[in-house]
Amino acid sequence: MTESHPQTSAVFADRHIGPRPDEVARMVQTLGYADVDALVDAAVPASIRSTEPLRLPEPASEVDALTELRGLAARNNVATSMIGQGYYGTFTPSVIVRRLVENPAWYTAYTPYQPEISQGRLEALLNFQTVVSDLTGLPTANASLLDEGTAAAEAMTLAHRSNKKSKSNRFLVDADCFAQTIAVVQTRAEALGLDVVVADTTDGLPEGDFFGVLVQYPGSGGVVRDLKPLVDAAHESGALVAVATDLLALTLLTSPGEAGADIAIGSSQRFGVPLFYGGPHAGFMAVRAGLERSLPGRLVGVSRDVDGAPAYRLALQTREQHIRREKATSNICTAQVLLAVVASMYAVYHGPDGLKAIATRVHEHADSLAASLRAGGVEVVHDNFFDTVLARVPGRAADVVDNARQTGIWLRLVDADHVGISCDEKTDATALGRVCRAFGVTFDGSLTGSALPAEVTRTSEYLTHPVFNTHRSETAMLRYLRKLSDYDYALDRGMIPLGSCTMKLNATTEMEAVTWPEFADLHPFAPIEDAAGYVKLISQLERWLAEVTGYAKVSIQPNAGSQGELAGLLAIRSYHQALGNGDRDVCLIPASAHGTNAASAVMAGMKVVVVKGNDDGTIDLDDLRAKAEQHQERLAAIMITYPSTHGVYEESVKEVCTTVHEHGGQVYVDGANLNALLGLAKPGQFGGDVSHLNLHKTFCIPHGGGGPGVGPVAVAEHLAPYLPNHPLLEQAGPESGVGPISAAPFGSAGVLAISWAYIRMMGAEGLTAATKAAVLTANYVAKRLEGAFPVLYTGENGLVAHECILDLRPMTKETGITVDDVAKRLIDYGFHAPTMSFPVAGTLMVEPTESEDLGELDRFCDAMIAIRHEIDRVVAGEWPADDNPLVNAPHTASAVINDKWEHAYTREEAAFPQSVDRTAKYWPPVRRIDGAHGDRNLICSCPPPEDFE
Fold first, then answer.
1. What is the model's pTM?
2. What domain range is 193 assigned to?
3. Which of 247, 322, 515, 667 has a Cα at 20 to 30 A from 200?
4. Does residue 143 lie within any of the structural domains?
5. How far is CA 257 from CA 139, 225, 819, in A?
6. What pairing do the DSSP bridges indicate for beta strands 300-305 and 804-807?
7. Cross-referenced PANTHER family, in alphabetical order (predicted)?
């Protein structure tokens, strides 16, 4: 008898969901219920419950799901891409693939809000910032943006709010910028009331005033020109200048900073990140001195810990949306951390000489291609270029592109007369020979033609820091990656109980297809026929997401939750405009809402009106009715999160939706907490008109240290005509859509197979069981901890949804021990802290997720109860208020072995408190970090090694 493979026969949901049946029985018994269903019935209002099971395929085993994915992958025809336009072939060094991209120590980490346990990622991101800063010639770069198109849009808004000299409302975009970049900028500008002027700036600026100018360097058509005359003219007219540029090109070309540019943006994709059919890729932005405190996104800075040792942290955190809300500098919440880390390690791996050698080879290939075309009688439009050759072939451009495709080469059809050919790291003589044959000429690698003129040839140094000049052997690189990952705490070490962030299992089988060449090596502007596997995967995933949310249509284009929010609000805005109600611009937002809601509303051209909350955390219905009545003629929407931001199923949600609808508004249901609804209730059925979903939360795409994320937008039938679309691919969205939200037609398509595999393997019953388990674990934790830390908000029957808020404020008032002290002390116990001070200052929000088993839940609860006992010892006077294990936490190994131990508690109490496994102790690399020092002394690139001596 043949025994079946366990991955073939086992139900995947049993692997994903942590608590075993016997553990479930003990947990529900603790809560006083007969079974999980009884608990869920008591917690979830009957008024929102779905009456029918989810209509999804029967769950597939892990092996069968991978077989199906192999079938989809096989339908993608991967050719040699020479399309360019911001997307290029690149070789990811194997050591980076194996030890970083496919390593859960890197991809399951959370955003580095707890810097003491994130030093590895933060160092890698500081490397990234240094790469961008050095190559662009501008002093301060951020820790990545979502892609090049949205980075350009952020540059526009930065220029608008920072240019105090200009009263203009116009933004000039050079016509030779990438088409997708122009379109994304136009989408953003329209909502903000800014006027985008697209013009050829080859011979100077057009007439009129502009607050900013965007130029591509090298241009979309490949041309490289001296930026300085344009920059000088723009500055003379009172405009700021943003340069969209290419990091690899900048190893050979004069930097934007040297030309006087104010801002540089672009994509780091060609630094070792696969094409991924458009994403995820790490965009970047760098700015001149004076603009650094207006940078959107995240910024890693150097500070120091309490011992004075250098330590990294996120700098200028007061710019974050959860604090500034509608006054935030942008609605960006996630970065593209994992991809930025890959790009930074690509630079560490190759070093400045290696990068210059790659760039030189790329340019020489383009140069010899141009010379061969010219020798065969083909007109080459530009004399000066880096990697892209623009050939003029009157009337036969389509034939040339088709000829090349028949030989396995994708070229860019510019128009009927022009073909674009971009060389990259993967280009070789064979490919160039096929390109030439497509034109009807012969390739001769010995021919050369153009050279980069002196005025654009770089002479300045870059990447001189030792980190980029040390790790030349694979042994050294391997150990550097291991050292950094050992600094960090990720899900492969233990539970990350962050409320609102859903740090659940990212199963290995779900991750497996990401690096398959058939998915990783496809250009986003490849012929749609060559992407048949992706098209089907995306279609299936969008259909499944529509089913589980109760909406009519889904677009997966938004490449972050914040972008999904923006897409949903733009759909609402366009819907009102189509009805002749363009003056509806008021967005109601509960006081407890996530900060990106308010920021996104402003980005969508709406005015935020805050709705009060009750003492129990619910929406104040009286205030809602009053505000809806007050703004009835201008009410566009309300943005609510369900379950609420406080982790409670609000009984009044249907009344909230009805009230807004009665006053002419639309209901936006933030999908941040969808992990508490799947299989139980559908936002599209209990009153929602639109929701964004977080695939990097509910649907198992890992957080990757803060990115990648995917934020699909789901809409009811009447909003479907206003979903995102794309100028370069009609299949990406409706013709009547709002324009592109992301640079690529399908956003971060490269990680969609993760969520596809999750849904495919879980099926309807599995997804529903996961939701029930999430509700069970949250209520179990709340019950166990209620005697030590009271739960702030509960719903009917004293129950929470999938997360709970622990109220530390009374304890702080009594003892002086703060939420920060508890969070840092948890590090000594071997845990990442819950979410701190959101949505209520002085509290901890805990979300255990469905993936943690009872042993890990109890370990966390035991640690929290032990910390409560430590606090009691401070109250009792056993430990001084200013010298105890909490206020001094976390404790490093070097601190514990210090000869001058003079604390009121023992070394053992510091490092090995109750329940800590001595054989698996996590040691933080630094002690508590002084954030204020880092903000006062802003250092955002690699410090010299002597700082660490």
1. 0.96
2. 119-295+335-346
3. 247
4. yes
5. 9, 15, 43
6. unpaired
7. GLYCINE DEHYDROGENASE (DECARBOXYLATING), MITOCHONDRIAL, GLYCINE DEHYDROGENASE, DECARBOXYLATING
